[in-house]
Amino acid sequence: MAQNIVVIGSQWGDEGKGKIVDWLAEQTGGVVRFQGGHNAGHTLVVGGKKTVLRLIPSGILHENLTCYIGSGVVVSPEALLGEIDELVAAGVKNVEQRLKIAPTCPLILPYHIALDQAREASRGAGKIGTTGRGIGPAYEDKVARRSVRAGDLADLDKVAEKVKTNLALYNVQLKHLHGAQTVDFDEVMDKIRSFRDRVLPMLHDVANTLYEKNRKGEKLLFEGAQGTLLDIDYGTYPFVTSSNCLAGAASAGAGVPPQMLNYVLGIVKAYTTRVGSGPFPTELFDDIGAGLAERGHEFGSVTGRARRCGWFDAAALKRSIQINGITGMCITKLDVMDGMDEVKICTGYTLADGSHSDILPFGADAVAGCTPVYETMAGWKEPTFGVKSYDKLPENAKRYLKRIEEVCGAPVAMVSTGPDREETIVIQHPFA
Ligand code: GDP
Ligand code: IMO
Ligand code: MG
Q: Given CA atoms 150, 324, 419, 39 in this order, what sign does their dihedral have?
């Protein structure tokens, strides 16, 4: 039996992690975010009502559940408080009391956002297509050892000193490198003073609490953001995010020993999507891709940008399964593929030098040189939307799932057939 589960995105993000985390959260003693920031957009639908979470863990709709933000997350206090207020306005109770934040979290401040946006504008056609939320610059500050961390808020003089030093560096870049508006010291400090009193009470020794909960036998759920192919090390670099999105990152990012990560649930969309720039071997530019985008409502939950759509890429999944140690897969959005005459699975690539690979190479240049090799299967005409048991799935849909298992080399533990919490099929319960 698995006591703790790490849920990660196995492709380029937006696989449906939020829905599954919300579904699994019921049984747990806490849900923990361990990387990323409010670049994430995790959609939950409960009884037809939609909630989009960006920074707050996807367990918050469960009334008595405590949610944790670990040290690996870059926190925008402004975005955090805005999200809390939205949830409270929607009737969610005690959000602030049920949210615990590691004091070691680096903060995202206005100069990170200004830099992110100015750099993207300067890159022109070569832009990464970031969410513009300041994520990259905030992680840079962390490794450069100049972050203002959440715990620093207790000492405003210390914060002011750090902000001053950072602005001296960044305003030169903003003005002279990018021809952009500089960021005013007093405005940053006013902003910090405006959120400080609400943020300080949420600070908590997250690592210690998680350790103790685990020792008492409580189940924990670690919620990944983004996806493996956006990972800073192993993704399509430089078209990636600025954190490690792998299951292993849950250990460092939440502050728990790796032995606590008992089960890795890889969330896998039944086809592939990507938002932002960068190579995408199975991308479709025809009516089939447009159909997936339309039926799957493939528009970013954070930025509203259209997501690029393509066939299922089993060779990319193979990479994901290996580097995350995926115990079981949850295939989401199967219903979006209903009604197609045929469906394709990419089983490998012809590389730029003419050789064959059955696994996605690393980095944007190598991936850009991949021409997919497809296997074609018959589609299914019967609807899978809302189906709640595996037996009731159309035969061809089952064949598709079986073939994915065979090519990728990991079992399908769950299938999602609609956005609602209830539209879920369990084959092998990850906690069982
Ligand atoms: P996340 O970032 O991985 O949490 O995924 P997003 O929430 O950004 O994107 C997933 C989208 O698909 C959301 O709009 C979900 O409501 C929706 N969704 C999740 N699972 C299913 C499913 O099985 N079927 C359908 N049709 N929609 C789903
Ligand atoms: P969830 O958790 C999909 C993408 C951006 C861009 C790249 C870098 O909802 O799956 P960043 O702002 O992180 O510096 O942008 O990463 N990206 C995502 N794509 N889902 C996400 O999160 C993403 N978070 C970042 O589009 O290409
Ligand atoms: Mg998303």
A: positive
